[in-house]
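Morning run. Coffee first, then this:
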Amino acid sequence: MSKKKESIEVIIEKFDPLQATDKEWDRFHEYRRKKHLEVNPNDPFSSNESTKNAIQQNVQNPEFGIHLLNIIDKKTDKQIGDAMQGLILEASPSYEGTKHLIQYDIYLLKPYRRKGIGKQLLKQVYDFAIDHKKTLLVSESSDDDGKAFLKRIGAQVALSGVDNRLNLSEVDWSMINSWAKEGPKKSPSTKLEIVQKIPEELLEEYCKVYTEVINQQPLGELDVGAMVFTPESYRQMEGMFEKMNRTWITIIAREDNGKISGLTEMRYNPERKTMISQILTGVQLDYRGRGIGKWLKAVMLLHVRENYPEVQIVTTGNATTNAPMLSINDRLGFKVYKESINAQITVEQLSKYFESL
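And here it is:
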């Protein structure tokens, strides 16, 4: 006889980080530590105060509405999971291409999986989508159980990606230095500028280039429109990161006519002092083939080694179809840490799934 699944009664609570009580925060942080040990046990763990500040800043983003749920085991009054439902707001310049969808994320601690709780959470997400008149739900997962859950509900894997990591102790620094020296030789009309805030006189052009470069990234079959950045929206992002006490490092490649030809950026959380995140790297189409991408990457790594000596690991995410960037990262020594998927399902398809249960 098959063993009967243990029934667990849960409470699904809306979590408002701006109004939460100390008890709610303590319960959340206890859960957060358990989740961390399941997901990334060897990574540095951010303090409660820093995490609380970051979450509070995120939910006040005027362009992205974030709605949080906490899942509580009714018997123990312990938090056992959480969920996020997010949607682009009309104030965002990216609204037009994303107004039909919500992004969501569901996580349950391992002992509480395959007990029907995930379906309860998914129904909450479904109702949220209906209430906001959305037609598509998009989620990302690098967890085997999460991927299996998305497959069971009939979600389409629209994009595959990898979380790559580079151990700086294993970097071939002689190669990095050679890339940094070759850059100005191959592209003598180009100069690099390292900034932590985009200069006002460059901001408008930078946002146009940033928008172009970020939308050159492969999106597979994701039904997502263009991401758009304006001087106002970019300054808002910078301000949010400053309030989180994070550092945002950007290297801009500029031509002798003043035009921006490429960029690379990293974000650093001093609470996680041994790690730094490589975000976007890109070169405008008209300026490719001159080694600018390798040059930017090399100079950034040299900058990190000199100015953030405690950093040991660089993390970055790439679509598996982004061959040019994967090639550069492979030569730098990045290794696959986790494989992820972005999956999408229409509200109509999800409705049929619930009807079939």
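DSSP finds eleven helices and twelve strands in the chain. Good start to the day.
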